[in-house]
Specification:
- The structure is a homodimer of 236-residue chains.
- Chain A is an alpha/beta fold and 236 residues long.
- Chain A has two domains: 111 residues, Rossmann fold, CATH 3.40.50.1860; 112 residues, Rossmann fold.
- Chain A is built from ten helices and seven strands.
- In chain A, α1 crosses α10 and α2 runs antiparallel to α3.
- The longest helix of chain A is centred in the N-terminal third of the chain and has 19 residues.
- The relative contact order of chain A is 0.16.
- At the A-B interface, α1 and β2 of A face α1 and β2 of B.
Chain lengths: 236, 236
């Protein structure tokens, strides 16, 4: 069995979701609850991440996430993930700092979009995920269109994600407003699917909320990671 | 700020509770939610632990938990904890394998019992925690009496903890039966307090369930650990 390391704390709520989902999916593949994978979590500080991105100090961001990755490498894990979308802004640069393979949430989601055959995809996430290119470009390179909300709406979504969801707060008013934003994207931009491009968004949305399929990046990432753990293994 | 490492996965449910409680308590002490401690979690396999204890292979147990501790030491944490009561059976032996100080859940609970002035204390936990001496002796050395249920009741409690609570299942029938066991201890043995000596027990009991104080070992342990993180620090 391959052992994985998680760079977490980005935020803690989604780290917990990752941890529990990886264990659940691992147990499903094993066909019993009487097994547990061994997992390392290096829980770092998302407020540093946000500050480095806001101040566009990308070198500091790469150093901070890179140090976290190197610590996991030190423990001789076989693979690792960053348990959040936003820090994937510097995924390639962090991967260059370690020899252990990292599994990208963006690549995993592109693969899933191809499998599902969706073409015109809405994207919600933090401001950085929506306004920067790191998430969009791999989709566009695969012939998919990515739509994001207007800038002022991006700012609203970002603040709610950071101040409410990251702290585990699910406010019904916020859910209603988020749903309306997506409904407008469906109507005005004819999106045929929606990327929950922030690991906290599944707290607020579920499949039943829309007629279009949701690409839950955390869920997709978890499946990819657990498949990796089982690579070259008989499932017994 | 001192950085701590957690030996977790024993089980995963209580690791999540530890992680979230440490962060919450840390933020309370800092007076803001806009801060996060950096934490390492080495999540190992509780089924190994249970097997080694059941088969009384204490050397294997010490090696397994000791290896987990050494990995955290490798990361240069300042202190570490085992996030469960049962493995404290070999706490002293594991501590001998690392130079980093470990904070014991048993010692923290003895200290809290002394602070609260309780004398005749009921103890619930896994079978190993109730039947072996590692939890009881430090209390007796401090002049406290520890009462545990009869052997057949211990077996019942153990199975419910392992098969339900460790898997995140809170069954109302189980809660009722557990409460009855404690009510009998209050009536027949005149216990003046109750140790929740298994980190899953707070899932099933709360302060309102009894007229006597509960010593929630996880909660006590978390407070002790967060105090340790702030040692020699101004709280600003």
């Amino acid at each position: 069995m391959k052992q994985i390391g998680i760079i977490g704390g980005l935020g803690p709520e989604s780290t917990v979701q990752y941890y529990q989902s990886i264990i659940r999916r691992f147990q499903e593949k094993k066909g019993t609850r009487q097994v547990l994978p061994e997992i390392f979590i290096n829980s770092i500080n998302m407020y540093h991440i946000f500050r480095y991105i806001t101040e566009w100090r990308l070198d500091d961001l790469i150093t901070y996430v890179g140090n976290a990755a190197r610590k996991l490498e030190h423990l001789e894990v076989d693979g690792m993930i960053i348990a959040a979308n936003t820090p994937h802004l510097v995924f390639d640069e962090v991967q260059k700092q370690v020899n252990v393979p990292m599994i990208s949430i963006v690549d995993a989601t592109v693969e899933e979009a191809k499998n599902q055959g969706v073409e015109q995809i809405g994207l919600l996430g933090t401001k950085f995920t929506m306004e920067r290119d790191f998430f969009k470009t791999p989709f566009e390179e695969n012939g998919k269109r990515i739509d994001v909300p207007e800038e002022v709406t991006q700012q609203y979504l970002h603040e709610k994600i950071v101040n409410e969801l990251e702290n585990g707060i699910v406010n019904p008013e916020t859910k209603k407003a988020f749903k309306q934003i997506v409904d407008e994207m469906i109507e005005q931009k004819q999106i045929d699917s929606l990327i929950l491009g922030c690991t906290e968004l599944p707290m607020i949305f579920s499949e039943e909320d829309f007629d279009i399929p949701l690409l839950d990046t955390m869920d997709i990432h978890v499946n990819k990671v657990v498949d990796f753990m089982f690579e070259n293994e008989g499932i017994s």
